[in-house]
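S.,

Sequence below, as promised.
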Amino acid sequence: MDARTAPFSPPSTPPAPSAPGRPPRRRLRVVAGLVTVVVALVVILLVAKGLAAGPTGGAVPLPVPTEPTAEDGRLPDGEPASPFDDSVPTVARLDPALLAALREAATAVEADGRPLHVTSGWRSAEYQRWLQEDALRTYGSAEEASRWVGSPETSAHVTGDAVDIGPYATAEWLSRRGAPFGLCQVYANEVWHFELRPEAPVEGCPEMVEDASAVTGS
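The prediction came back faster than expected:
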């Protein structure tokens, strides 16, 4: 057949390119879930790191407990109390034998022309915990704080067996002359902290320890 007389055949249309494959929806959900988990973990780690470092990179920040009151043994406005004032819980709730020795010493001290004040005596466990947490914030470490403030479970203040006195000059005087009254300075770093040692009038006060962290009371 002559090419000029051959019937016309239109060229075949090439197939349209197939659309790129789409991942299954299930795979997308799995990937999205993994991304969410990773982001959450990163946020948690960053928050934990910030809390551990604290606001200045020091101690772990502690929640501020409720302010103690006079009923907890705190002295209003930080004013010292008379050792003869039974209306003040920090004095009235001292161990009776310690309170009797303190009043005997106060009478002798005042006869010598020196004032003697109670700056802290009995404390509730809540007040002691408040002081402990305040010391942690102040000193930045539990080790250093324990040199100055004991826990509610170990402090002799909580049981009424310790008293802090002032002013400083009177505390120094009593540190040297307290044995006849049975009153002894216990910690070398706290000239104001006294406890009753009934054997002291005869045997003298025992040797002081370095600080509160070395014993079970503060």
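Helices lie at 25-53, 89-92, 96-111, 125-139, 142-145, 168-177, 200-203.

Coffee later?
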